Amino acid sequence: MSANHDISRVVRSWIREEEHDSADRVLEVVLSRLDSTPQRRSWWPAWRSPQMNRLTALAAGAVALVVLAVVAYQFLPTSSVGPPRPSPTPVVTPEPTETPPDIPAAGPMDPGRYFARLEGVGFTFEVPAGWVSNGDFGIDKAVGIGPDGAAFIFWIEDADAVFTDPCERVLGPPAGPLAADLAAAIAEMPQIDLVSGPTAVTVGGQPAQHVAITIPTDIPCEPNAFYLWGDETDDGQARYATTTGMTIDVWLIDVDGVRVQIDGETYEGAGPEPGEELEAIINSIEFE
Amino acid sequence: MDTDLVVRAQGGDKDAYALVAAEIADRFLAVARRILRDRDLAEDATQQALLAVWQDLPRLRDPDRFESWSYRVLVNACYAEGRKERRWSPNLRILPIDETSADRSLESVVDRDQLERGFRRLTIDQRAVVVLYHYLDKPLDEIATIIGIPVGTAHSRLHHAMRGMRAALDADARDTAREGIR
């Protein structure tokens, strides 16, 4: 008998030793939380937080809200966007007349201005018609994943590093504190296609970096196992690909020394409109 | 697993999901406990996985693949819990295998504590493959699908895990022998 066969047999026997594992207590907790745990529909973007309880808590503290501007959608720019989208131009938006509301819990959103707080930095932004909240970390076009779809992920705490081996979940060293540091790391990631950037832009009047990438169609693992960037040091949040062929626009904004991260995504076969909507929302950002 | 229950749960039927969860919960906990080697972490991983299965069930395109898909969710939850554990665990390293002792009969020298110590020295990635392979009897191609890695990587992880176990057990045996000589 070979040594390997020997050890396999021993390990197999040991690991199958009978231990009664009753999950009744866990099951009770889970079932009690179903009512407050909305299901995620298939068009929601891809962000995985291993610590779901933490994410829920983060999400709960993430926003404050306003009702506004059904007319906002009429102000969206109509020009073509294309992958490289530097130098956002401020969009004309109505002056808020009351405190914008937080992003609502999962479900449809009225068009208008909303409030979000990322990394402790508060800002408002304009949402056009046809978008929904995914409940805790972003907003999506209600049409779902496809050529007409688009989505944003708001990083309540920004990523610290990129995965140096996306399919093996190998997170690289911290990228550094500046927007330019993380933008450079994203641009140099393996196994992705760089579309543009890093490019110096402004968002809400603040200096920012924009970088756009696409996820190749021939990645060696499933998209939801293809990890992009994450936060190892804090709560273990990690971003993975929603689907292959998608384009991810990352905006990294330096706001008084704090880096704020917003990811936008469009999907394979997209025309100019989804990208234009992303750009319009980014252009509508106003920091506190 | 009853596919009709899965389909109903996908549509938001909480009663259906309660039945689904009741059917998989004990097995989830058993797998998580074997991967993580810690009852509390395993319960946390199981809880997170069962909630994640509920949340993401609408995204499962083929209900017939529920089992593999749900194990993937569980393994990911174990990775997350394992990351917590790593924060306070010592940075253990797999010792090089000692070929001179590789052909001894292990059963005569190995006890449960040695196996436990050896297994804890493996990475969570390796432990997951070992548990799926030796405890759940999953073939490596299915394990690759569950974890989202190439089949070759699954082979490699299992190989290195067994090699690491052997090396750790040998190191343990050497230490024991050394203490006996003193």
Shape of chain A: globular
SSE order of chain A: HHEHEEEEEEEEHEEEEEEHE
| Percent in helix of chain A | 10-25%
- Per the CATH scheme, the topology name of the largest domain in chain B is Arc Repressor Mutant, subunit A
- Which quaternary structure do these chains form? heterodimer
Question: Can you summarize the main beta sheet of chain A?
Answer: 8 strands, antiparallel
Report low-confidence residues of chain B grouped into runs of 5 or more. 85-105
Q: How much helical structure, as a percent, in the residues of chain B?
A: over 70%
Integer tally of domains of chain A: 1
Reported CATH architecture of the largest domain in chain B = Orthogonal Bundle
Q: Give the N-terminus to C-terminus distance of chain A in angstroms.
A: 71 Å
Largest interface: A-B, 47 and 59 residues
Question: Major sheet of chain B, described briefly?
Answer: none
Number of strands of chain B: 0
Portion in beta strands of chain B: under 5%
The CATH superfamily of the largest domain in chain B is identified as Winged helix-like DNA-binding domain superfamily/Winged helix DNA-binding domain
Mean of residue pLDDT values of chain B: 78
Structural class assignment of chain B: mainly alpha
Rg of chain B, Cα atoms, Å: 19 Å
Q: How many helices of chain A? A: 5
Strand-helix topology:
The complex is a heterodimer of chains A (288) and B (182).
Chain A (H helix, E strand, L loop, with lengths): L2 H13 L8 H10 L13 E2 L3 H9 L46 E2 L3 E7 L2 E7 L3 E3 L4 E4 L8 E6 L5 E5 L4 E2 L7 H9 L5 E11 L2 E9 L12 E4 L7 E3 L6 E9 L2 E9 L5 H12 L2 E2 L1
Antiparallel strand pairs in A: 1-13, 2-5, 3-4, 4-16, 5-6, 6-7, 7-15, 8-9, 8-12, 10-11, 11-14, 12-13, 14-15
Chain B lengths: L2 H8 L3 H23 L2 H18 L9 H23 L23 H9 L3 H12 L4 H8 L3 H31 L1
Helix pairs in contact in B: 1-2, 2-3, 2-4, 2-6, 3-4, 4-7, 5-8, 6-8, 7-8
